[in-house]
Each structure stands twice: as structure tokens, then as C-alpha cells.
Amino acid sequence: MRARSPAPLAPRIPRIPHHASPVARTSAHHARAARPRTPPGSPARRDPARLSRMRLYVPHDERRPQPEPAVTNDALAFAIGLGGWLIGLAIVLGMLAAPTPFDPARVLTTIAVGLVLGIAGLLVSRRR
Fold first, then answer.
1. In a domain, 9, yes or no
2. Is the pTM of this model over 0.70?
3. Cβ neighbours of 111 (radius 10 Å)
């Protein structure tokens, strides 16, 4: 018995030699990229009316139940963020001693707002 070779999924496109013109190489690339991605025996090809059965709105009684919310540690996330703002504050305070050209008021205001929002988030997340 002879082993049968598997049928190709898509028609073979001939290879263009590397010395061919750039136009011929580009058109072969586009022809290769434009071939269908689904194999000939797939359900999408066997059932052309499959797309007509797709609904854009599903009634509430036919929907799947919503998944449970993920359990997260919000306080840890806010604490890590606050640590980042404190490291930034230490770096900016160190830069004040060195003669560097930057606007300390704007940078310190940004860090202060980040610290205030981080503390508020930490307090809210600990209440829950």
C-alpha cells in the first residue's frame, strides 16, 4: 500500500527568484498573503450561512453568567505606588542640593499630588 500525501491547504504560489524584479517579488508576496486562512474542509467553509446566524444582541435570559470578580490586594498596589512616589521625592530633594536646571516647584507639586492620591487610595482600599 502506498502512503498518500496530505492534500495542500491552499494553492501553492511559485517562488520568485531573488534576482527577479522588486515588482514581481512584491506581487508574489501579496498573492501569498491574500490566500484564505481556513482550510477547505473547515466548518466555516462547509456552512456559508454561518455568518447569517450571528446575532448582535443576546437577550438576558440567554447570556452566560458573569464571572466572579478577581480577588486583588488593592492596599498592596497603593503601597507600592506610594513607595515609588517617596523614592521620587528623595531623588528630587537630592537634586535640589546639586546645581541642575529644573523647575523644583512643578516636580514637587506633581510628587505631592501623587502622594495625596496614593494615601487617599490606600485609606479607601483598607475600608473595603
1. no
2. no
3. 18
